[in-house]
Amino acid sequence: MTARSCSLVFLLCLTLIPSPSPGADKKAAKDRPFEPPDLYVSTYKPLPSRPTVITNATVLTAAGERIEGGAVLMRDGKIAAVGRQLPLPAGALVIDARGKWVTPGVIDAHSHLGVYASPEVDAHGDGNEVTDPVTADVWAEHSIWPQDPQIPLALAGGVTAQHILPGSANLIGGRSVTIKNVLGRSAEDMKFPGAPYGLKMACGENPKRTYGTEKGRFPSTRMGNIAGTREAWAEALDYRQEWAEYQSEKDAGKDESPPERNLEMESLLGVLDGKILVQNHCYRADEMLEMIQVAREFGYKIAAFHHAVEAYKIADVLAENGICAALWADSWGFKMEAFDGIRENVALVDHAKNGCAIVHSDSALGIQRLNQEAGKAMAAGRRMGFPLREEDAIRWITINPAKALGIAKQTGSLEPGKMADVVIWSGNPFSVYSKAEQVYIDGALVYDRNDPARQPRTDFSLGLPGEVGGAQ
Amino acid sequence: MRAGALLSALLLLGSASAGAETVAIVGGTVYTVGPAGKIEGATVVLEDGKVRAVGRDVAVPDGARQIDAKGKVVTPGFMDSLTRLGLVEVSQVEGTNDTRPNEDDRFTAAFDVVDGINPRSILFPITRIEGVTRAVVAPQTGESLIAGQGAVIHLGTERSDWLLRSPVAMYAVLGESGAGLAGGARGAAMLRLREAFQDALDYGSNRRAFESGDRREYALSRLDLEALQPVVKGELPLVITVNRASDIEAALRLARDFHLKLIVAGGREAWMVARQLVDAKVPVLLDPMANLPDSFEALGATLESAGLLHKAGVTVAFMTGDSHDVRNIKQAAGNAVSYGMPWDAALAALTLVPARIWGIVDRYGTLEPGKDADVVVWDGDPLETTSYPEHVFIRGVEVPRDSRQIRLRERYKDLSGVGELPYRQ
Question: With a CB-CB cutoff of 8 Å, which residues 241-300 of chain B face chain A?
Fold first, then answer.
C-alpha cells in the first residue's frame, strides 16, 4: 500500500471509533508525536470475485432481520442488496441456497492464532512478551506466523475476520490486530484494512502469577496489578505533556529538540487519542469495576472486557458504559477467578438495555465452531425464559464483535455497502450438525466445503501424514 | 490372602437406591440403545432404582409418578470414558486438585483415584443436570509413566454409595509425554514400561523370595508391583494415552508381548492404524473435536476420526479428559455425527460402548428391564447444542435441577434492584 492510501487508512481509523474517548481532545491529534510508520499498514487485497446472488435462503442479517426465502447480492466485493426479490444483474452467478442459511461472516474478537501457532512447540510461543509487565511497544502482528495451519481450520468454521491479541501475562501486553481470515505471505497481507489497533490489557491472576509467583517481582498482588497499570498511564500523560510543551515552544518559534521517542508511550497515546481500542482481559466483576475507574482516571475508554466470566453480575454497568463483553459460552472453573462462570452469562449481558454480548473463542478449537458456542448460549438464555431468536444470537458472533473491534461500519452485518463477508450454512447455523459450506470474504469465494480446490492450506499442512478431505 | 483380594478387580454391587420412586415416563421417543432399538411413543417404567419395563404397551403401575414425554426424547444417562470428576474443584488451585502425584517420579501404579474422589464436588450437580450420569475417573500423568488406577462412579445424590467399579483400569502414557518423562526418547519410555511389566511378572511368581529379601532389586516399589498384578495377568485394562500412529503401533506391540488388555486414549492418529486396532480388539477413547495438529504426534488429527474408526470397525467411546467441561460431551458426540459417524453409533459411544469397555454392561448402557435406571428425558435431540434434559434419573432417583451455577444465576438474573442485591438483604 502506498503512503497516500496510508493517510486514507488513518482517516478511516478516526471515523471508526464508536465514541471518542473521554480524554481525547481535538488538540491531541496535533500533539501526537509520531504517526506510526507506513511500513506496517495492510497490504491485503481482496481475491477476484464476480457478481453473485445467493437466493432462497434463510437470511440472518445481524441487523435484526430474519428473511425467509431471502437473497443476498454481492457485487464488487460489497453487499449490494439484501431482501426477498432482488434484481439479477446480467452475468451474476446465482446460487440456489434452498434449505440453507446465510449469515454475515463470523468474527472472533479473541484469537491467538498465528501468535500461538500449531504445532504448540516452544518455538511457536510468541504470544506473551514475559520480560516486563508493561510491554505496550510490542505488536501481535509481528508475532503472527501466517503459515499457522489453524487459520484455515477457522475458515472452515465460517470465520472471516479475527482479532489476534498478545497473551495475558502482562498488565499491558501490547497491540492486538484485526485480520481478514485469509492466507498471505506476511501478517500485513492479512491485515484488515483500516481496522484500529487494540491494546491488550489484563487484570487478575495471570499478571500477578507470571511476575509475583513465577519471577518473584512486581506485581504479585491485585493491588500491584492496578498500581502497575496506573503507573503506565501516568507516564503516558507525562509523555503527552512533554510533546505538547515541545509543540507549543515550536509553534512559538523556539528551536527546541523533540522529546525522545518512546514506542511504549506511542501505543498508550494512541489509546488516549481514541485511535487504539482497549481490549481488557478481566474475569471478576469487582476487578472490571476497578478497571473502569482506572480508565476514568486517565481518560480512556474500554472497548471490551474479554473472558469476563462474571460479566453477568455487572451487566447493567457494562451496558451503561458502552463496554462490550467478549465471553465463552460455558468455559469455567479452570482457575479461581473463573469459578463463578455460568452458562447464562452471554444471555444476561445481552439482556441489559444496550448490552453488547460477544461469544469469543480464545481457542484454536473453539474458533472452529463459534456458531455452536453461540447456540449453547442462546439455548441457556431460552431456558431462563428469555425469548432469544436466531436473529438475536447471530449478533454475538458478527456485528457485536465488529463493534468492539471498531470495524462495524465495514463488516459484521448484511447491509448494502458493507464488505461482502458472508457464510452459507448447510442449515440453522446454531445446530451442531450445520457446517459452513461456502465462505465469502469481500465477495470472493475463499472456502467451499464441496470443492477441495477452494480449501486453502498453509505451507505447514502440505504433505503431512494421513491427509484426508482437504482442510478438515 | 491380601494379595488375592487385590488380584481381582473389586466389583461393588450397590443395593436398591434410597429414595428411588416408581416412575412412568410416558409417550416419548425412546432410544433404548439395546436390541429393541428406537421405540416411538413408548413408556419407560422405573422401579426400585431399576428399569422395570420399556415398550409401547407397557402399563403404568398403580401409584407411579407419571411424566409426560410426548415430543421428548428418552435415552440412557451418558457416560464420559475419561474424566477428572471428583478430583478437582478449581484446576489451578492446588489444594483442590488431586488428579496426579505431581512430584513423585517413581512408578505410581498403586496411586488410586478413589482416595481423592470427593462425591460432594460442586461439579457433580453441574454435570449431572446436563444428562451425564456416569464417568470414569482417571489419574492424570504427573511424573510417572504409569499414573495409577481409575474408577467408575455415578453422579447421583447418594453420597455414601458412589463408587461403581474400582479399580477399572491402570493408566499410562507413551508418545511425546512418555518420552519426556523417561528422559527424552520414545525408546527409553518403552524400555521403562517393559522393565516395569517384567518386574511385576517376576514379583508375582516370587513374592515369598522377595519378602525374605532373596530376590533381585525391582524398579518398582512393592505396592506398585502389587497394583500391576491384574494388569500383567490381562485382567485389568491398561489405558495408554498415545496419539501418533507409530506410537499406537508400539503400544500394540507392548500389549502383545505382555498379554495386556490395551485401551488407547487420545488416539489422534488412531484412524491411520484402524485395521491393527480392530485385529487386536483394542478400543479407542476419543475426543472427536480434537482435530488440531498441535504437536508432531497429532499431525494426522481430523474431525473425521470418530467416523473413520467406526467405519473400520474399531470400538469407539467418547471422552473429554476434563472435569468442568464434561457436560459438553454431547456436543463432542454431535460433532462426530456431523463428520461422518452414524447418529446411533455416537449415542452408543456415550452409553452402551463404555458400559461394555468398563465392564458394567449388566447394569448400565441401555434401557432394558433389570438395568440401573439411569434415564434422561430430553427436550430434543440429545446431541444438539440447543437441547437440554428435563429430567435426569440416576439409579432411579431424579436429581434436583439445582447447582451452584443455577443459584448464582438466580441471584444476578434481575439487576433492577441494584443496591439491594440479595446478599445485602
Answer: 245, 269, 271-272, 289-296, 298-300
